[in-house]
Amino acid sequence: MSFRNAVLLLAAFAIALSLSATAHAQVGAYGEFTVNRLGGLISSPEPTPNLSGARTNTVDPLGGTGGVYYDRWKIGPVKIGGDLRGSILTTKRGAYVNFNGGGARMFSALGGVRAEFHTPFAPLKPYVEGLAGLGKSDYGLLYNLQGVTNNGIVGNSTVLRNNFQYQALVGLDIKVLPIMDYRVAELGYGGLDPFGTYAHNYPIRSVSMGFVFHLPF
């Protein structure tokens, strides 16, 4: 092997190692426990089953959120990239005061922009995000009328609506291992806006915590 070829091979190997190390630091997957508070239920224009009993204005579905982020650019102390995530949240308590009914459900698939900030104390990793996508929910209100019995108790047959969902998030991760961070808290605010006839805004507040794993590619 000529000296020139050896140098080129070593350079290619060094570049490959550099890219691998960069990607290792940029890509992460996470799992969170999430609690949402969905509001705006009393003023909802949705036609609901003809049942006696007042509505509450909020429901609090909880469950899991999982996603993947990629920090693509570094500008000074800020890393900027994207985030894709999905959530499955449920509760047995629906929006009616006198009975649980079919509970409440929220399912979402969101994507958007993420910015992580460097701090003087390296293990601390604060970040902000802006996300949007598809959300599906029954708002704790929409029960299939076939589930209503003669005594007025609602079954678990629900109707899900498609919505435009958006959220702004702020959070803090703490590095605990080279490949893992502890997500101390993630706070969010956003909303569900239905597609179609029943235009309305259902505000969303969220709290999450979990773990982040740095992927080796």
Describe this structure in words.
With 217 residues, the chain is mostly beta strands. It has one domain (28-214): Beta Barrel (Porin). It is 11% helix and 52% strand. It has one helix and eight strands; from the N terminus they run H-E-E-E-E-E-E-E-E. The chain has one helix at residues 3-26, and strands at residues 27-38, 62-75, 78-91, 104-117, 124-137, 161-177, 180-194, 202-214. It has an eight-stranded antiparallel barrel with strand order 1-2-3-4-5-6-7-8. The chain is elongated and about 55 Å long. The two termini are 31 Å apart. Mean pLDDT is 84; it is low at 1-24.
Roughly what fraction of the amino acids lie in strands? Answer: over 45%
In DSSP terms (H or I, runs of 4 or more residues), the helix count works out at: 1
What is the level 1 CATH name? Answer: Mainly Beta
Strands, count: 8
CATH architectural designation? Beta Barrel
The CATH topology is: Porin
Task: List the topology elements.
Elements: H1 3-26, E1 27-38, E2 62-75, E3 78-91, E4 104-117, E5 124-137, E6 161-177, E7 180-194, E8 202-214
Antiparallel strand pairs: 1-2, 1-8, 2-3, 3-4, 4-5, 5-6, 6-7, 7-8
List keywords for this structure.
217 residues; mainly beta; Porin; 8 strands; disordered N terminus
Short description:
This protein is mainly β. It has 1 helix and 8 strands.
